[in-house]
Design goal:
The protein has 106 residues and is α+β, with helices and mostly antiparallel strands. It has helices spanning 78-86, 91-94, 101-105, and strands spanning 5-13, 16-23, 30-35, 39-45, 51-58, 62-68. The strands form 2 sheets. It has a 3-stranded antiparallel β-sheet, with no helix packed on it. Strands 3-4-5 form a 3-stranded antiparallel β-sheet, with no helix packed on it.
Length: 106
């Protein structure tokens, strides 16, 4: 999904490392990771699984592989309304609709 990213830190020898980030740059794309005994492949792919960008490194050289899903921003106030309902606050405070149980059973 847009915003998903994978950070790969690779040992390039001589005590040095290189950090590479593969990120889903457009909506509908995702980042896939395939770790095998010989190579690690990180790919940004489309909805139809067409590869856009690919990073291939020897698995023995991978120092760190960090998958970071995108942060989901929820609508402000939704969490507070749900928490109020769970605490059984009055309907006016929680801004929940009143339910007339008597009318439902008649």
């Amino acid at each position: 999904m847009l915003g998903d990213k994978v950070t790969v830190i690779v040992d390039v020898g001589g005590g040095l490392t290189r950090e590479t980030i593969v990120e889903a740059r457009k909506a509908g794309r995702k980042v896939t990771v395939d770790v095998g005994p010989r190579k690690t492949v990180v790919t940004e792919v489309t909805r139809g699984d067409k590869p856009i960008r690919t990073l291939t490194v020897m698995s023995s050289r991978v120092v760190s592989l960090d998958e970071e899903p995108r942060e989901i921003e929820e609508e402000p106030g939704v969490g507070e309304k749900l928490a109020a309902a769970l605490r059984h606050e009055s309907r006016e405070q929680a801004q929940l609709p009143e339910i007339d149980l008597e009318a439902m059973h008649s």
